[in-house]
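Researcher: Here's the sequence for the chain we discussed earlier.
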Amino acid sequence: MRKTRSTTTKRRTTRKNTRKKSNPLPVLDILGIAFIVFGLITLITLFAQKPCGVVGETIAPAMRDLVGGFGACMLSLLSILFGGFCIVGPLGIIKRNIGIGSVMLFLVVTGWASLATDIRWDTPAVGGGYLGNVLAAILRKLGPDVVGYIILTAVTIIAAIIIIDIPLANMIDRLRYAWDDISAAAVERASERDAKRARAAKEKPAKVKDEPEANESRKRTLASIFGKSVEENPEEITEKAAVIQEVKAPVKITMPTPLKPERPPKNGGSDHSDTDINDPVEHGEFQLPPTSILVEPPPPPLRMENELQDNIEIIERTLEEFKVTANVVEIACGPTVARYEIQLAPGIKVNKIVGLADNLAMRLAAIDVRVEAPIPGKAAIGVEVPNKNRGIVVLREIVESKAFCEATSKLTFALGKDVSGKCIVADLAKMPHMLVGGATNAGKSIGLNSLIASLLFRATPDELKLVLIDPKRVELSLFDGIPHLACPVVRDAKQAASVFRAVVQEMDKRYELLTRVHARNIDGYNDKVPPEEKMPYMVVVVDELCDLMMQAAAEVEASIQRITQLARAVGIHVVIATQRPSVDVITGVIKANISSRIAFAVSAQVDSRTILDQKGAERLIGRGDMLFLPIDASKPTRIQGCYVSENEIEELCEFLKDQRKPVYTIQPGMVPGGGSGGDGFDDAFADEFYEPSVRFVVGTGYCSTSMLQRKFKIGYTRAARIVDAMEQAGIVGALDGAKPRQVLISKEDLESVFGGKLSLPMDDEDDYVPPAEEIKPYDEEEGEE
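Model: Thanks. This is the structure I predict for it:
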């Protein structure tokens, strides 16, 4: 029993000690209350008329003498602020920037007070105290008072930047955007106020008509002043009436007419074949695909004239409510939107209608309304209203159009139709690179598929090579295996970085070839060499840049910068797409040399500014609705992108695969990684066992250092260097804990690693599968893979 009691006593003692340790003394709370009390007492004493007590007679005068009157008040406020921080949270969460910025502002206040009131050592409380007098004396030694004021202003701005923790450029951009929003809101409020006044004027009874005698006397008085009758010279009323009568002309409605299919281009589009449009076009041994592979365009949707007339009345009535005199003069009906062209009366500002876009959308019951002010080349403003019956633009309709068939460039691709129903095509050689951005499900991937498919209808594998990078692994995989590919479709981000380095290497080789024949660009080179030595164009398509920037940002950004700066002359063009249009993905280095942009629907105005450097994409309605801004235009063009289905792409690719197998010219596996010295990979790539090791790893599907040691009887250091080189080339993946390395390429892709030339063919020995005891993540002898 005694042992039991002693044990119980020990437990109670332990619990008491635990409770004491779990409740420490609240030092921060006590310190915070002390600082707040000190700040409040000193602040009250500083403003008291008759100082009393120890604080009023001793501490307050000392604070005034030390930092001046303004500085003493600021010191009290800082004491209260610091006490609040201590109570709200621990000192660790208080940002160092706030403390540094507050101290800088405190010194600026004291120095400014002494500099403005002159330095007074006998009565320091009048200025900034002894501290402010010292700072003012230092500033006056540097120059006149103006220099001191400039320095203090600069220090104030720096302190504000430190406290807010926002770069100055971003702060200026935010102020500019805020000013734009305030201006638009002010215009809208003014319009609403004018509309209210107009409605009040209409509702107000006309009392003047009940007093004809007073009205006659007023007319006589005005006649005696101006020497003529008022009714004989109503110039302003006549001018306004003439404007209204002129604008009230019949509205012209432009409907898109069905396009007659043109014959596909032959030999660059200069000559037309006499065969049927659905027959394949021969280019030597290779035949371009016929357009019969694609589906026929559906009939255009019905456009009700009554609906258009109702919209005209709603638009004009809404503008009239906001005191905007305007009339609709023409309507252009496209597949997605109808553009109502409006002419304004003299004296009406254009920005007044821009601020009424939301009001028009509400009155028209539309998803969104975009105002184009003014329309390029016209003295009118365009109000774009989405159609209730939306049409579909298919790829075949654009490929068979006159604009596509008469184009001479091999890099002409289909875009879609504009708001007037006109087929729009573009030349990638003139861009020369393009940036595509938009939110998810806005039509970005279908737009890329249409671009690639339309290029395949114009160029043979000898005229065009494609490099497709698809980190999402599902969008561009349909084109894998077509003869136009310069390398297999890249699905791994690390392998994409190696492919970009290989494209840079290809660019350097092409410049060497141009130098030998003294040509300035690819067209001049092809004119000087025999047909079998002509240089094909190369288009690099990246479906999702965000994934590449997350995993290999430095290498990818540097390669894109070099390609976009130099590759145009040698016929290499880049098309980059992303669904995350933010500044950390689309960096300034990437945007600097990509002037042609396509913006699909985005969620915010900031994303539109990131892509196009201007707003507008946030008002698109999705499903292929885009804004196209080429390099030679100042305003974007609204286009409904063309649609191509997966079945059409599969039939197109099968037609191309049946004629020829791909010959890969890009060699990502033979290009060492970035860095000045190569990090030892140059020796590994030149190793005589590198190619046999690659063949062995691809054949077995396993990779480890110990397997290469036993297979080729080499040392650990040499085998490890070969494995690292294969990882750098994108052949195998990185080490993942205890798991073996993943082999990223197949046997079919093995020839692309060595440029289509293997010293030995794949045989049965390469299909050797090691026993289970040989597949180990770590080497038993060296203890490391």
